[in-house]
Design goal:
single chain; alpha/beta; FAD/NAD(P)-binding domain; Enolase-like, domain 1; 3 domains; seven-stranded mixed β-sheet; 24 strands; about 30% helix; disordered N terminus; disordered C terminus; nucleotide-binding; Thioredoxin reductase 1, cytoplasmic
Length: about 525
């Protein structure tokens, strides 16, 4: 540690954290609990359109929080339409007010920004709105928005800089397109929107924009939700298409031009097929890029102190204790190589790191079986392995897939989306049918998945699920009665929570046989 243990007084701080997102703040507050001198440097480089935000990182400002709130806005629109069937007198035409929604969302975010600053002050953590760059061993330069520079030293450093949206590198992308960094504070309704990308960010944004009544098209290079269970991803895409979202598949934009300025204006997008020389054009009011994110690690002086990164991705390889190849530099969050890019993961890793560094703990962050939810119109909750990963890890002959469609009781009165919700578990046959993958498409998927994630951590088996008495009538009880597998082609269960509490084996066998063929619900 270059004499750090012998001469701790030589440093300005015990710990300097670069990045004031969820993970960095969690680590800062936990380290301060052990009476350590902690500094947080946080600086938001404006987007090409000039958007910036306050303390709290991506999740609070331009990610999880505004995304979930706008998703809720879309769900409320559907609830209003459903309410007519429950006896409520609702006007035939329901209008959404974009400006009112964004104002409310931004006001809430502002209160969170303020709360984080107050919390740091109360815990005696030094906060500077400045851009941090390593300038030498144990030394960092902090540059504020006026260009004023200061040099600080610390015994240890934590990199928690997160990621920012990627751009296409084509004519007009940075001049005329927006990213998720811009969308949630956009001062005008985006109008007819082209969403470019197949990531969860792309589908979530496309979903809530369509849900508030906008004309939305998604342009996809290849598959949806790469890295997620493809059976579930395809069902999400089908549901979105059935609800008005248009998909242009196997095309990528090559040029974006402005036809008319305005708020919104009009843009012309030229796109090229991925498998031929075919080109197409389309006109939109807004083009939202959601093609992935890049780690913010390339311009913070890591090479100056010798911290290694993956040159292709910018990600930082670390030990199981989040330590880089430079002993006094640690890293957490989305910038880690091979780790889940999720806010709760960064928070857990940051908190546990501080406890190990300063509290004598030996507990490490467990990156296995991390639950997550994609907040598309039909929410997707998952924990553990996808079907593809399970086959790759255990072999197809050693896994069993139990599955069922289901129809939420609340949706039966408005008679919508019958048998669009879907439950699936992936079991390892050779390990007592241990559940290694949990997947659900349906309302409140995140709430359902959170509880089952704890069960998976405890080694849940299919027998234990079968012996669990379900809560009736709720969607989650479908997992206590799963009996049909993909391996065995037999009558498919159609679970109705409002029924007798067990799957209804429907008499419409020919219809379900056709369903089997269309959705490939069995192994060939």
């Amino acid at each position: 540690m270059n004499g750090a243990e012998e001469l701790p007084e030589m440093y300005d701080y015990d710990l300097i954290i670069i990045g004031g997102g969820s993970g960095g703040l969690a680590a800062a507050k936990e380290a301060a609990r052990f009476n350590k001198r902690v500094m947080v440097l946080d600086f938001v480089t404006p987007t090409p359109l000039g958007t910036r935000w306050g303390l709290g990182g991506t999740c609070v400002n331009v990610g999880c929080i505004p995304k979930k709130l706008m998703h809720q806005a879309a769900l409320l629109g559907q609830a209003l339409r459903d309410s007519r069937n429950y006896g409520w007198n609702v006007e035939e035409t329901i209008k959404h007010d974009w400006e009112r929604m964004t104002e409310a969302v931004q006001n809430h975010i502002g209160s969170l920004n303020w709360g984080y600053r107050v919390a740091l002050r109360e815990k005696k953590v030094t906060y500077e709105n400045a851009y941090g760059q390593f300038v030498g061993p144990h030394r960092i330069k902090a540059t504020n928005n006026k260009g004023k520079e200061k040099i600080y030293s610390a015994e240890k450093f934590l990199i928690a800089t997160g990621e920012r949206p990627r751009y296409l590198g084509i004519p007009g992308d940075k001049e005329y397109c927006i990213s998720s960094d811009d969308l949630f504070s956009l001062p005008y309704c985006p109008g007819k929107t082209l969403v470019v990308g197949a990531s969860y960010v792309a589908l979530e944004c496309a979903g809530f924009l369509a849900g508030i009544g906008l004309d939305v098209t998604v342009m996809v290079r290849s598959i949806l939700l790469r890295g997620f269970d493809q059976d579930m991803a395809n069902k999400i895409g089908e549901h979105m298409e059935e609800h008005g979202v248009k998909f242009i598949r196997q095309f990528v934009p090559i040029k974006v031009e402005q036809i008319e300025a305005g708020m919104p204006g009009r843009l012309r997008v030229t796109a090229k097929a991925t498998n031929s020389d075919e080109t197409i054009e389309g006109e939109y009011n807004t083009v939202l890029l959601a093609i992935g994110r890049d780690a913010c690690t390339r311009n913070i002086g890591l090479e100056t102190v010798g911290v290694e990164i993956n040159e292709k991705t910018g990600k930082i390889p670390v030990t199981d204790e989040e330590q880089t190849n430079v002993p006094y530099v640690y890293a957490i969050g989305d910038i880690l190589e091979g780790k889940p890019e999720l806010t709760p993961v960064a928070i857990q890793a940051g908190r546990l790191l501080a406890q190990r560094l300063y509290g004598g703990s030996t507990v490490k962050c467990d990156y296995e079986n991390v639950p997550t939810t994609v907040f598309t119109p039909l929410e997707y909750g998952a924990c553990g392995l996808s079907e593809e990963k399970a086959v790759e890890k255990f072999g197809e002959e050693n896994i069993e897939i139990y599955h069922s469609y289901f129809w939420p009781l609340e949706w039966t009165i408005p008679s919508r989306d019958n048998n669009k919700c879907y439950a699936k578990i992936v079991c390892n046959i050779k390990d007592n049918e241990r559940v290694v993958g949990f997947h659900i498409l349906g309302p409140n998927a995140g709430e359902v998945t959170q509880g089952f994630a704890a069960a998976l951590k405890c080694g849940l088996t299919k027998d234990q699920l079968d012996s669990t008495i379900g809560i009736h009538p709720v969607c989650a009880e479908v997992f206590t009665t799963l009996s049909v597998t993909k391996r065995r082609k037999e009558e498919f269960s159609c679970f109705l929570p409002g029924g007798a509490g067990t799957p209804i084996f429907c008499p419409w066998r020919s219809w379900f046989e056709d369903l089997w063929t269309r959705t490939e619900l069995h192994h060939p």
